[in-house]
Structures are given as structure tokens and as C-alpha cells.
Write a structure and sequence with these properties.
By secondary structure, this protein is of the alpha/beta class. It folds into two domains: about 5-185, Alpha-Beta Barrel (TIM Barrel), CATH 3.20.20; about 195-399, Hypothetical protein af1432 (Orthogonal Bundle), CATH 1.10.3210.10. Helix content is about 50%, strand content about 10%. It has 19 helices and eight strands. It has helices at about 30-35, 40-50, 55-60, 75, 100-110, 125, 165-175, 195-210, 215-225, 225-235, 250-260, 260-275, 280-300, 305-315, 315-320, 325-330, 335-345, 345-360, 375-399; strands at about 5-15, 20-25, 65, 85-90, 115, 135-140, 155-160, 180. Strands 1-2-3-4-5-6-7-8 form an eight-stranded mixed beta barrel. Strand 7 (about 155-160), helix 7 (about 165-175) and strand 8 form a beta-alpha-beta unit. Helix 13 (about 280-300) packs across helix 18 (about 345-360) and helix 17 packs parallel to helix 18 (about 345-360).
Amino acid sequence: MFNGLIARTPIYTRSLDLYGYELKFCSGLALQWGINDDDSRFGDSLARISRDIPLDDLIGHHRALIRPPTDVLPICEKLSWPRNRIVLALQEEAIRDVEMEKSVHELAARGYTIALHNPSRSLTELNGAIKRVTMCALDAGAGIPSPIADTTKRPQLLVRELKTIEQYDYFHRLGFDYYEGEYFTHPHLIHGLEIPANRIAVLQLLARLQDPNVEMAEVENLVSRDITLSYKLLRLINAAYFGMPKRVESIRKAVMFFGLQRVKNWATVILVNAVDFRPRELLTTAMVRARFCELLAMELGRSPTEPYYVAGLFSLLDAIMDAPMAPILERLNLSPELNDALLIGAGPIGEALRCVVAFERADVLNAPLREFPDVDFPVRAYLDAIRWASEANRQIVDA
């Protein structure tokens, strides 16, 4: 098994539906030493990942964007993944060098989508290469090749590394097709600093569920009073993925079998899913973080693990609720340790959350933890978290 690090960043359409993911990774050596890979290690990692891990395990049925160095193009020709689902975002030098241009033609002929990353030429000039270049991936801070809108036959346009609402609005007005960046993981505050009224009721229910002193009878009553919540929770619990030996017919039996905290956590996921937020992928990301944090706590021998799960799940609650994290936490009345972890990344729980977020971005330079008893833990845990979140989300959405 590949023992480095794999990460995925969502790419959204103009309507904020999920188009696919940009895949990022680093070798085991880079992870251990906290350094960036050179081109050779990048190529070796890419080849091994494509052999070891099915693409569906990483991104479901969506598409993957990869930014390989030009020297790695020969390796791209031999990837084990379905080529019609791979976007290769290449440097412009790849279509300027005669030999490299032949490789690009061959990759396009084999079914890969070819994109240019931060091209310096205008889109009018790029029209000469349009038969093989069908997308341009531009970093938000890298400048715009001009002109943008002077041609009806232009590549599809992706903007990466969005950080502010001003950047998002600017590229949206320009007609870009796809959007990617940490901007989507922060609240946009379109309602100001106040929590929207229609979300306060959800927070109140979340507060009761996450109260450490809440008793089983109250949880059973809270969940059972909401028919939709009760139905979806039982459907999730009885999903084949969780391996129940026999069907659970009541919330009380679910609590007795799984434990109060686990049922509270699943009910929390369903409540958050009921909030009207975009993009919907935010909840999937939060669920992946929750499971990854939980697995990380287990790997490090930290107990109890439930606060780690909650930290991951609530780490995007500000973006989902479109409100600052501090007033949200005031209403939730979580433990001081969880509050510190979510607000400032402090304490053991905060350390784990910062590690998971860094891994999510393949940012090994800022990962507070890089060595584990099991060397392939980061990959194994990330794949487990993706599978868990995908299955749970499917059960919730289909219910």
C-alpha cells in the first residue's frame, strides 16, 4: 500500500454542484520529513497510487484533476485509472516543446482531458490548440489571460485557490465554468454576523443532543418527536454498511446497541444535512474530517474518541450555517476543550483537527503530526473516512 499522503479538493460548477476533485499527494518520504516532492517522487507516487487504489475509492463516480510536472507525462500514459475521467492540467511548456506536444496529442487521443495551468497566452491564441486543450485552470492570484470573452470557442475555465468572496464574484462574472478553493469552507456572512433565524432552531436541537448530561430518555424523545429525523436515523443505522446483525426498529434499541454518543453523532449529521446550504459537498467534507479525526485518536491511543469525531464534524459548521464560529459555539455549549479546538485549534483535539485539515490539503509543511505507528495510516484512514462518509451521505440523501 502507498504510504504517503493523498488528498482531494472539491471542484464545483457554476451552480455549486460537484464536478470532481483535484487530487494532491506526496510520497512517504515527503510526509516523514515535511518536505515537498521533486518531480521524480511525484511521478513514482502517482504511478503507485493508480495501481494500489481504485479511482472510485477516492472520488466516487466523479472526475479527477491532476497537475503533473511536464517530465511526468510519460508516466501519465500508463496510469491504471479510467482515462476519460482524468483531467491533466499541464504547464504551457508542454504544448510549446515539439516532443512534449506529441505526448500531449497522444494523451488526448487516449481519452484524457487536457487542461493548461496558468497559461500566459490569450484564449484567442490558444484556439490553435483547442482540439487538444479543452480546459484552462487558472489560479485566482495569477492574473487572467486576456481577452476572456472575445471568442465563442474557448476552453472551459476553472479558477483555483479562491480565498475571498470578491475573487469568487469576479470570476463568476467573467463566466468561469468551475471553481475550487478554501473560500467555500468559510462563512460568506450574507446575513451579516447574526445567525439566520431559520437555523437557530437546528442549533438548539444540536445543543441538546451534544449536552454531555443529556440522558437516553431525552435523546429518544427528541429524535422520536421529529418523524423525518427518526426515519432517517433508523435507515442509516440499518444500512448494510454498518453490519447490523438484525434490524433495529426503535431509537431506544439503537442507543442500547451502539451507545448513546454514537446515536447522538448520527442524529447530528442528519440535522445538519437538513439545513439549506450550498455547496452540499461541505457536509461530506465535514463527515470525512469527523471519521478521520476519530481514527487518528484511535491510532494515537487517545480516549475518549467521540470529542475528536465531533470536532471534525463541527469544523465546517460556520460555513454550513453561514455564521461566525464563536456565536455558534455559544449556542451549542460544548466542552471547553472542544470550543478551543474549533476556535483556535488548541489542545490535543485541536492538534488532531489541524492535522486532518492539513492532510486534506496535502499540506505536509503545516501538519503537526507526521509519524504514526502504522506508516500507511494516513492513506488507510483517509480512504476509510471517504467510504464511511460516502455511504452515510447516500443513506441520508436517499431516505
